[in-house]
Amino acid sequence: MGKRALLVALCVWSYCLAALCRESPASGISQSSSIAEKKRDFSGIKSKFSLRTSKNPYEDTCYIVPGQEASVAQCNFNLTTKTFMVIHGWTVTGMFESWVSKLVKALYTREPYSNVIVVDWLSRASLHYPVAAAYTKVVGEEVATLIDWMEEQFGYSVDKIHLLGYSLGAHVAGVAGSLTSNKINRITGLDPAGPHFEYADASLRLSPDDAVFVDVLHTYTRGTPDRSIGIQKPVGHIDIYPNGGGFQPGCNIGDALRMIAEKGIHNADQLVKCSHERSIHLFIDSLLYGEKPIMAYRCNSKEAFERGLCLSCRKNRCNNLGYQIKRVRNKRNSKMYLKTRAQMPYKVFHYQVKIHFFGNTNFTKKNQAFLVSLHGTKDESNNIAVILPEISANKTHSFLICSETDIGDLLIVKLRWESDSFFTWSDWWNTPELRIRKVRVKAGETQKKVVFCAPEGFSDLKKGGDFVEFMRCLGKHPNDIESL
């Protein structure tokens, strides 16, 4: 039952992706009238703008209608505070997905006196994907018309407007931002859709020019360009790629099958949606857990990040993910990376571990598994698994590990070299052994660097052996101990 449900979900998405690669994003859709014309005639606007309330974030009870001044008062729109506009993406069901009300509720939790408007373009977003993708331009024009009308009619400043667009909705937000008379304050792109937009002109998709500040979360960028569910290239002032932007923790096939078995076949599409939708839940996390913001780090590549080489906060190299992001307008796109947990709260603590392995003979081994345990002033984190693509004797290696626990200041580091999962005669007759004098650790969240020493000057690390323990080196200031 579970495998059949999963197959059905994958087939639906495969059909749609195959179809969208064959059709033009402009197919079957006539060009809409200009923004200037729409200001004179609002009758062609089909999108609905529901002002939801903090008391009832789940229902659409009042709509702001462009051109109808009375609707603004009737919906109790607050002209003195900020406005969030939530824009959904493509939908198979033609109904709002559950994340919409969750995001609305989280926004009101963080900003209780704000206005949260849900842009409803479901009738167009539920069409065949290529048609829905083409409609992002039309819907973006309609959103821009509303914003310009609010500014002209009520003097409502665009400095108070923050658009949050998911998937195709991110490109709707981009088009809207490019067309408003004055530049809106902020756009957050939540895993902007990839197909039809990876190579699209900037005027048709989200880009840094669409708002004073544009930040983007990329959570599902697997596959070849333009077939990736989420857009792969950076399209904002800051582009963050959690867990490298690929599959997110907790979104694997096994988890999806368990969900289907427990909750039914209607959850079969969660395998595809899980990583894509994670962008939304990471932003919700940033609203609900603002006292412990998730940190992201600027890096040239995810491979360099995996080696722990990018945990610096100097010159704006680190930033908060989500709502509390610090605005940095770089001359070029800034790509940032981080790791997360599988569930909310998603925050983890990043550490770079740097070790020089000594050996009596030079040798190199591939894909070696290690366990690392960290003990600190607040807590401990045991058996953190890491696989090093390659290790060599008489060479320094750097790698990244993450703890789901805030352990405070580091006191002890333990290291174990795991046996291979398969039997090798060479290891039977000659167990590999490395000698370690010091272990250097840098904490990304605190920027503290600490060096740990072997108790007897050197410690022997044997493959398949016991944990080897390293203590803080004596005689050094704990916050400034040797350079990593």
Automatic annotation (TrEMBL):
GO terms for cellular component: chylomicron; plasma membrane; very-low-density lipoprotein particle. Ca(2+) binds at residues 205, 210. Gene3D superfamilies: alpha/beta hydrolase, PLAT/LH2 domain. The keyword RNA-binding does not apply. InterPro entries: AB_hydrolase_fold (IPR029058), Lipase (IPR013818), Lipase_LIPH (IPR016272), Lipase_N (IPR033906), Lipo_Lipase (IPR002330), PLAT/LH2_dom (IPR001024), PLAT/LH2_dom_sf (IPR036392), TAG_lipase (IPR000734). It is an enzyme of class 3 (hydrolase). This is Lipoprotein lipase. It comes from Varanus komodoensis (Komodo dragon). The gene is LPL.
